[in-house]
Amino acid sequence: MIYVHYLEQSRALRVVWLLEALELEYEVVHYSRNPKTWGAPESLKAVHPLGKSPMIVDGEQTIAESGAIIEYLIDTYDHQRRFRPESGQALLDYRYWLHAAEGSFMMWLVMRLIFIKSREKLPFLLRPLIGSFLNKMDQIVIEPRVSTFLRYIDDTLAQRSWFAGEQLSGADFQMHLVLQLADMRADLSAYPNIQRYHKQVVQLASYQQALQKIPA
Questions:
Q1: Any idea where the GST C-terminal domain is (predicted)?
Q2: Is the model's pLDDT at 35 over the cut of 90?
Q3: Among 122, 105, 88, which residue's Cα sits nearest to residue 175?
Q4: Please, are residues 6 and 41 in contact by the beta-carbon 8 Å criterion?
Q5: Using one digit for the tens of pLDDT, what is the confidence trace for 6-18?
Q6: What are the backbone angles phi and psi of residue 176, rounded to the nearest 5°?
Q7: What dihedral angle (degrees, nearest 10) is formed by the CA atoms of 195, 201, 205, 209?
Q8: Taking the model in full, what pTM does it have?
């Protein structure tokens, strides 16, 4: 049995979706965030010192980080190689998008979220000054990078159905959540291929089954 340690409002949907696609038996262990610090409870830190989610326990193996988990599950259980290209450009694209999701894109979306949360918690008298500064930083630093990434992703998806070619792969399990978060923090109406891709994903039975286990 594989155990998925899921901290609320984390990125564990990627892992549960892949487990559904692989048709593996698993159990989701739910954790609530600390309402003051928004961090992980000590019970999750007992599983892994950093208390990060998603995390899986498979027998004696405890694995953290979305990309590492996706690679482990595909390498270990995808015996038919449905979700990993064998070679060539598709394999290179698979590796690139699997790592670019967190390495290049997610940090800017998280930074934008931090700015938004910071503005919301500012004392009323400080909002005009510091809130204006945070808005300006978003416009100067974050928005240009997010827009560049979204254009690049949209152009990529104009050429193929999935991130690594014409077949669903681990890169899609990793990247779709990035686009979901971007949709919450940016206007995606100018990116028709991203919108088409999102509709394609949510129609998958495995994705819908994952949503029944944990929220997006």
A1: 87-216
A2: no
A3: 105
A4: no
A5: 877 778 899 999 9
A6: -60, -40
A7: -100
A8: 0.86
Rounded mean pLDDT, 186-200: 91
Domains and CATH numbers, the chain: 2-83+209-213 (3.40.30.10), 88-204 (1.20.1050.10)
DSSP state of 166: S
What tokens appear for 36 in the block?
């003051």
Per the CB < 8 A criterion, the answer to whether 31 and 40 are in contact is yes
In 3D space, the residue among 66, 65, 77, 59 whose CA is nearest the CA of residue 20 turns out to be 77
Residues paired with residue 2 on neighbouring β-strands, in sequence order: 26, 58
Q: Please report, as a single letter, which amino acid is at residue 195.
A: Q
Task: Map tokens 């015996």 to a residue.
Answer: 79
- For the packed helices 66-77 and 88-100, what is the interaxial angle rounded to 10 degrees? 140
Q: What is the DSSP letter of 23?
A: T
Strand partners, 55: 5, 64
β-sheet with 2-7: strand ranges across: 26-31, 2-7, 55-58, 61-64
The pLDDT of residue 52 is above 70: yes
Q: What is the pLDDT of residue 131?
A: 62
What phi and psi, each to the nearest 5 degrees, are found at residue 134? Answer: -65, -40
